[in-house]
Amino acid sequence: MSVRVARAVRAWGWGTSGRRGASNFRLPPLGTVDVAELLRDATAAEEVPQEAAARRQPGQCSVLLFPGQGSQVVGMGRGLLRYPRVRELYAAARRVLGYDLLELSLHGPQEDLDRTAHCQPAVFVASLAAVEKLHHLQPAVIENCVAAAGFSVGEFAALVFAGAMEFSEGLYAVKVRAEAMQEASEAVPSGMLSVLGQPQSKFTFACSEAREHCKTLGIENPVCEVANYLFPDCRVISGHLEALQFLQKNSSKYHFRRTKRLLVSGGFHTRLMEPAVEPLAQALKAIDVKKPLVPVHSNVSGNRYTHPKHIQKLLVQQVVSPVKWEQTMHAIYQRKKGTEFPQTFEVGPGKQLGTILKSCNLQAWKSYSHVDVLAAAEDTDQDL
Known about the structure:
The protein has helices at residues 3-13, 35-45, 49-55, 86-97, 101-107, 110-113, 116-137, 139-143, 154-161, 167-187, 203-216, 241-249, 277-285, 308-318, 325-333, 352-360, 362-365; strands at 62-66, 145-150, 190-196, 224-231, 234-240, 258-261, 296-297, 323-324, 343-347, 368-371. It is of the alpha/beta class. It has 2 domains: 59-186 and 271-371, Malonyl-Coenzyme A Acyl Carrier Protein, domain 2 (3-Layer(aba) Sandwich), CATH 3.40.366.10; 193-262, Alpha-Beta Plaits, CATH 3.30.70.250. A hairpin with a 2-residue loop joins strand 4 and strand 5 (234-240). Helix 11 (203-216) packs across helix 12 (241-249).
């Protein structure tokens, strides 16, 4: 078995042997391939995955992008159910979560699906189910994957895809993260504001003045800071609601072209989420994190992970740190002039990451595709 094939098998087996004894949650039903042994056998025989990747032409390689919270929509998953193991993934999710995620994803209601505690697991599972569809329709895309990245909670799905953790382990960590972030959001009235600016926009100065405004209202230690770097001149700002209202009211002063409140429950990726740090850290300690078989880029730095210990550390740090997505896109798609770009597949609900890629790198976006999770399966095979 080649390392590339082993990489694909590793991604799709979901590892149900239960050997990682530190985990304190139930694993999916037995019956899938014991991919850990297959992988050990393969890597013992051939330990040159980077050399194998180098022999492939850039245009034959692929990159997978995993969306984050905010992409959820009622009906997601409907276009995936006929593909192998998708129903098994949702059955395993029910065991880990304690409720029927497939029913919620397919039929809502939307307000329940939008709750942070629900939408993060829903997006995580739908994204990995979309990868199952992609694997069924175009297995070479999985074998030739050279990089993966996920936006916020999507980073957990990217790491599961890359074999750094098993499906149930990743979902359990997402469950703990989502519930802790939901609780932190309810403690302080806060939110997120998408801001489309201009080259002369003053994001840092605007956040500073918004914090000063909050102090005049009697708010102690107000929070207002950039939480997401999306593409040039576009940021998401998180903080106290009063700070976001101030920025919207005074947007012209800071040369903001457009502002829009996001439908999220709190000021994510700021210190307002500090109550979620310790629960997530404890959950990740129960996971035997492996070195990814496909390079995965961190939201915190934009760079690829180099060691399993970095994964545990930065996934915790990510909760209270800005998502450097623009920097991640530059890191993944930087190449010499004239070099072909890899095929890019957004796996999961929505096409937001494709839109961002178009603004970050138009040439890379020309090789972009979306794996649909909504439409009836027989109507969407031609998408790819």
